[in-house]
């Protein structure tokens, strides 16, 4: 029997086991949300924008609570959702292989179960970290085996409130080119690290011809960098992965331009990972939330050791520490990078400089942007604890919903849920990373379920009043009092 056939048989056995587990747990439960229409058009209970890991966990969590009238929209072709095999250029995930990630507490839904079913326990024991391509294969299987409703190559072009309880979403189907309008009672933004804005580069870079530079999240043709001098700005994981990819593609030299005197070495949040943090972070005061996140951001997250070694193993990969980029200009068919250590000439520059909140870059939020409350609208940190990234984080409610900057200014805003990386300051790291994404999905789904039930309370009460299926048929007992009465009457006669 071929390896491929053995893998297929292993997966089929796992899928039967998962189906049995779900049956034993009575999952998913029966549907309970009343269907509705708006002007003759079907209304979705939830539209999820994004079908990467977070989008699928959101959809699965809703399904496990009996909410089926859900659709995920993703602009990418099927199998290319999220960053895993597009701009994520690492070789493996950072997370330890044993983390259960999006499995929602179901052993048969874990990556480990998926891997062992195909390759065996001994292969699992030998596995170091999860190859990113296999993680994507697992997510494709996750979507299939749970029957999650996803429409690919659909781009959301706009979103606006219709009433206090309804949102209109405009979208374009990339395959047919047609435009359509759909309606939703709730919208979930599962749009990743750049979910409330986009990639960030210094303003001076924007003035340079784009053929000389790219952001690390761009679609970069690394084969075109063969024989070229390349600079990578930054020292995080994406910086290392992009530098290594350029070196492996044959770049003549790759210089890491790193502002810090020393690279961070300790991943602080990993050191305190626990269910206490997962469940308790949202219960902290604003002051303590800010204190935790500000400390972590200032300490910075180190790049993975393997990613760093992937660069340093190349003799033409160099690390320029304590080197701050100040400006950049075009000159003689190249770019000159001005730093505190002097000028350096390159053929191409990659900015691994992260993402920034900029609602004007998000068509789905343009109509809501003026009303959204941010942390800077609510909280003033102590002197010395100011942090621009935290200040522009959305100040979210208990169910990841946006809150109004001015109460009453946009009531429908509560129907939009921010289930992406910028939610971290309000909820902790539950909506952007692998470790606690199931906890985040359950919190989100439970909140939406609560909101839907409350909104439909009149219907549910009417159903309660109309329910007439008897538990007892009337022939299960004898009326002893009536018997006693007849006995007494007979004795008197």
Question: How does this structure look, described?
Answer:
The strands form 4 sheets. Strands 1, 2, 3, 4, 5, 6, 7 and 18 form an 8-stranded mixed β-sheet that branches. Strands 9-16-10-11-12 form a 5-stranded parallel β-sheet, covered by helices on one side. The chain has a 3-stranded antiparallel β-sheet with strand order 13-14-15, with no helix packed on it. 35% of the residues are buried. A hairpin with a 2-residue loop joins strand 14 and strand 15. The chain is globular and about 120 Å long. 33% of the residues lie in helices and 20% in strands. The chain has 493 residues and is of the alpha/beta class.
Percentage of residues in strands: 15-25%
Mean pLDDT: 95
Number of helices: 17
Helix content: 25-40%
Number of E-type strands: 18
Structural class: alpha/beta
Q: Unreliable segments (pLDDT under 50, ≥5 consecutive)?
A: none
Radius of gyration: 28 Å
N-end to C-end Cα span: 91 Å
Largest sheet: 8 strands, mixed
Topology, pairings included?
Blueprint: H1 3-24, E1 36-38, E2 41-49, H2 53-63, E3 70-74, H3 111-119, H4 121-126, H5 132-146, E4 150-152, E5 154-163, E6 166-173, E7 179-189, E8 197-199, H6 203-206, E9 213-215, E10 229-233, H7 237-248, E11 253-257, H8 268-271, H9 275-280, H10 286-299, H11 305-312, E12 317-320, E13 325-331, E14 334-339, E15 342-346, E16 348-351, E17 355-357, H12 375-378, H13 388-391, E18 416-418, H14 424-427, H15 437-455, H16 457-466, H17 480-492
Parallel strand pairs: 2-3, 2-7, 3-4, 7-18, 9-16, 10-11, 10-16, 11-12
Antiparallel strand pairs: 1-2, 5-6, 6-7, 8-17, 13-14, 14-15
